[in-house]
């Protein structure tokens, strides 16, 4: 659900300024700047290799940008990485947890790393909230994709972070699980979390994001609300050409702006 | 709003608990690591009167240390890296050193357990008795020597990205170390090889373990072997840390 009411202009929970990331001589991220505000779902969209993951990795502190500044809840990811990370919850795209540990042990471990001590009873209550009370003694690998995503999301928000990073959170999920996850993401937004989400699904971006940035060849080429992006680009010939059913959608705008060529 | 982050000691304690649980749940694999040198120790009973208890014991301890460093440590490291477990930990407020130190602490515990088991089996089955200083020295030196193979395992995981390839390479290196080390040391591969093995990571480790379990035999050559062992550890650690990548993608 695109909900402008949730967007406010408070101090950003994430501030990215003039970010540049190089791999050798290849410039993966080119002078990228954006911000995510509290109570906002901000979508970062782009074709494969556009620079989404590199941008996200820099925000997470997993790679060192050549220049630019990133602040999470006011803390510089370069100068105060542990403080920045303590204010950030992350759901990585390709991640797993220790296969030998039970779900209860995994939640206790990650909660503990964030300074939150949880008893088994508290973990059971958390699992009951996400309808996974039977999973307490199971291993992560024994859960379905949707269940794994719910666990991953619980761990990402266990310490009530100001910023939540979700990297393609609904990839591989069935429609029911996807809708359920959208509801959970919106609930996090309603609690005041700022959420940075990357996705390849335009339907998802249109449904849940308050604002969107489209990134291509390492540059942000458009930033606005989904509806404003559609309205301001509907007359462009390349967008009209991309339209398949007469009605202009966010996907038409995306293809119109980034081209029809398949990226590797 | 101010942010408080847990202390590094608290994070380390949580990680160590998780890693110890992992070790316990993988106890069958750990048992196999201990089993190989134990079987060698029992089967070498006949060599004790000829070469002496410290010689037999030190060879078996060296085999155990090699197995822990090359197969146990490096394979779990490669697997967890491939699964993205390290990346997940790195986006949390956990200092990098706590992640690796916790892993290494568990391996050091494995080294102590393996060495202790070999001391007990050596006594029970082969009748090898050591002085109290021999037992203490053997345990302490096994930690120093274990560091060589742990750092060598780190080098392999740094150089090789694929989990299956790490598995194959470590087994191959383990096999070469054991075979060339044991037969080379006995002079079965020629004099040149005997001398090469003597100053190889297998030979120096074997030498100082042998001298540590029988402190009266510690001499200049043992001190030189210890220095060479520390040198190997320094070089392997430097390369292992330099080449190590937290993810393979």
Blueprint (SSEs and pairs):
The complex is a heterodimer of chains A (264) and B (249).
Chain A: E1 14-23, E2 26-36, E3 41-45, H1 52-60, E4 67-72, E5 75-76, H2 81-86, E6 88-91, H3 103-113, H4 120-129, H5 145-156, E7 163-167, H6 175-190, E8 194-198, H7 202-208, E9 211-216, E10 219-224, H8 226-233, H9 237-242, H10 250-258
Parallel strand pairs in A: 3-8, 3-9, 6-7, 7-8
Antiparallel strand pairs in A: 1-2, 1-4, 4-5, 9-10
Chain B: H1 8-25, H2 27-43, H3 48-51, H4 53-83, H5 85-90, H6 96-126, H7 132-159, H8 163-185, H9 191-198, H10 201-213, H11 220-243
Helix pairs in contact in B: 1-6, 2-4, 2-6, 4-6, 4-7, 4-8, 4-10, 6-7, 7-10, 7-11, 8-9, 10-11
- Low-pLDDT stretches of chain B are none
The helix-strand sequence of chain B is: HHHHHHHHHHH
Tell me the number of structural domains of chain B. Answer: 1
Proportion in β-strands of chain A: 15-25%
Biggest sheet architecture of chain A: 6 strands, mixed
| Share of helical residues of chain B | over 70%
Characterization of this structure:
Chain A has 264 residues and is of the alpha/beta class. Helix content of chain A is 36%, strand content 23%. Chain A has ten helices and ten strands. Chain A has helices at 52-60, 81-86, 103-113, 120-129, 145-156, 175-190, 202-208, 226-233, 237-242, 250-258, and strands at residues 14-23, 26-36, 41-45, 67-72, 75-76, 88-91, 163-167, 194-198, 211-216, 219-224. In chain A, strands 6-7-8-3-9-10 form a six-stranded mixed sheet, with helices on both faces. In chain A, strand 4 (67-72) and strand 5 (75-76) form a beta hairpin. Residues 1-8 of chain A have low confidence and may be disordered. Chain B is built from eleven helices and no strands. Chain B has helices at residues 8-25, 27-43, 48-51, 53-83, 85-90, 96-126, 132-159, 163-185, 191-198, 201-213, 220-243. The longest helix of chain B is centred in the first third of the chain and has 31 residues, at 53-83. With 249 residues, chain B is mainly α. Chain B has one domain. The mean pLDDT of chain B is 92. The chains are: A alpha/beta (264), B mainly alpha (249). At the A-B interface, helix 2 and helix 3 of A face helix 1 and helix 5 of B.
